[in-house]
Amino acid sequence: MLTKGYAALSADAPLAPYQFERRAPGRRDVQITIEFCGICHSDIHFARNEWGMTTFPCLPGHEIIGRVAKVGDDVKKVKVGQRVAVGCFIDSCHTCASCKEGHENYCENGFTMTYGSPDKDTAGKTQTLGGYANQIVVDEHFVLNVPANLDPAGAAPLLCAGITTYSPLRHVGVRKGSRVAVMGLGGLGHMAVKLAASFGAEVTVLSRSPGKKADAQKLGAHDFVLTSGDNALAPLANRYDAIVDTISAKHDINSALGCLKRDGTLILVGASPQTLDLSPFPLIFGRRKVMGSLVGGIPETQEMLDHCGKHGITSDIEMTTPDKINEAFARTVKGDVKYRFVIDCTKF
Ligand code: NAP
Ligand code: ZN
Questions:
Q1: Omega before 339 within 30 of 0, i.e. cis
Q2: Fewest CB atoms less than 10 Å from the CB: which of 39, 91, 117, 339?
Q3: Which of 190, 294, 249, 207 is nearest to 48 (CA)?
Q4: Nearest-10 crossing angle of helices 187-198, 161-171
Q5: Which residues does 311 contact at the CB level (< 8 Å), separation at least 6?
Q6: Which residue of 49, 182, 188, 243 sits with most ligand 1 atoms within 8 Å of its CB, as the best mutation to test the pocket?
Q7: Residue 335: CB within 6 Å of ligand 1?
Q8: Hey, is 293 helix, strand or coil?
Q9: Within its chain, how far is the Cα of 45 from the centroid?
Q10: Atom of ligand 1 nearest to the CA of 189
């Protein structure tokens, strides 16, 4: 099926209109007319080959919301016309221990990312192409239901920014009375604030941007601390049960580690292309931990969407159009968006 989108043909080329074929829906497939797709900083890292793993053409997009246009004969989960979502991956082995436990994101045989993975449709000769497009075809297992009360454009970023922060916050047991800090108030960071606050935690934003202080409070944070300046974090020593680090570039994590309570966890979700330096001392003194976390599995993603439906949580977005994707990339890198760009995919 002829599909229209925007792709980068090389690491230094801007994204430009790109037409390609998607498979016709098979028995277990859902054909989705895409309405909205969020712009995640990972899309930018990937399109610019900052992680050194991109094969071109690269057509990003993994925060996808749309309507079901067609279903294969065996599809039971969704119906034509229904509003649905697709996140960061569209296939996995279904047989390994992680898949069997609903953690397809940690598939031990390699999951298929929504974009940038070898495409099984072409026996791996081409890469999967993502949600910066007018339609997508996905196995029903990887299609999610969207609560009807949520604004669909604001719900798009839940599929990556939402689940990437929801999953580790739940994993470390954040609940009423927990103290959480969020480093970096961008797409992931603002969702971490909203979600941690919805679990009843007391939330502090750690940011390099003084202009974000008023927003932090509106998003549900109780405190805002500017990270620029010498020893800015020293007054926060031994304070937090968890810190969610969403920073997209090289930065100091050692002074943040000192802000954790004994046994506290620094949750690293930001994926800096440059290696971060880790001092053993703040870990040893305080038995503190550093963990990473990658999006979330399908059952937990549905749980997160339902939680957001119940609490009326969506992302704060700025709508953009396909012809302005490159401008949106540049503004995201500068931190000039409150707090996620979402593409109107009806305009492809
Ligand atoms: P974003 O919207 O650009 O936000 C990143 C924030 O980090 C910025 O708003 C800024 O916040 C802070 N920041 C950026 N550059 C900085 C620097 N040089 N020094 C200090 N702070 C800086 O990005 P995002 O979409 O939230 O993604 C954040 C990171 O998470 C990216 O690396 C992305 O690839 C990664 N990611 C990981 C997963 C996963 O599964 N683990 C999923 C999605 C994304 P302040 O202005 O408030 O300081
Ligand atoms: Zn993402």
A1: yes
A2: 117
A3: 249
A4: 40
A5: 198
A6: 188
A7: yes
A8: coil
A9: 13
A10: 26
The DSSP letter of residue 140 is G
Cβ neighbors of 133 (< 8 A, separation 6 or more) are 3, 4, 5, 6, 34, 37, 59, 61, 345, 348
- Ligand 1, atom 25, residue with closest C-alpha: 41
The candidate with the shortest Cα–Cα distance to 266, out of 162, 192, 342, 341, is 192
* Residue bearing the CA closest to ligand 1, atom 46: 209
pLDDT tens digits, 292-329:
999 999 999 999 999 999 999 999 999 999 999 999 99
Tokens of 155: 């719900």
Tell if the pTM clears 0.90, that is, is over it: yes
> In angstroms, what is the span from residue 333 Cα to ligand 1's centroid?
9
Give the DSSP letter of residue 311. H
Q: How far is the CA of 148 from the centre of ligand 1 (A)?
A: 29
- Please give the number of the atom of ligand 1 that sits closest to the Cα of 188: 26
Structure tokens at 128: 């999967």
Which of 296, 297, 196, 277 shows the shortest CA–CA distance to 242? 196
Contact 203, 220 (CB under 8 A): yes
Ligand of minimum distance to the alpha carbon of 270:
1
Asked if residue 295 has its Cβ within 6 Å of ligand 1, the reply is: yes
Per residue in 171-227, pLDDT (tens digit) is: 999 999 999 999 999 999 999 999 999 999 999 999 999 999 999 999 999 999 999
Distance CA 327, CA 82 (A): 32
Q: Residue 66: beta bridge partners? A: 34, 84
Q: Verify whether ligand 1 is closer than 6 Å to residue 152 (CB atom).
A: no
Residue nearest (by alpha carbon) to ligand 1 atom 12: 184
Q: At what angle do helices 161-171 and 298-311 cross, to 10 degrees?
A: 100
Q: Position 218: which residue type?
A: K
Identity of residue 81: G
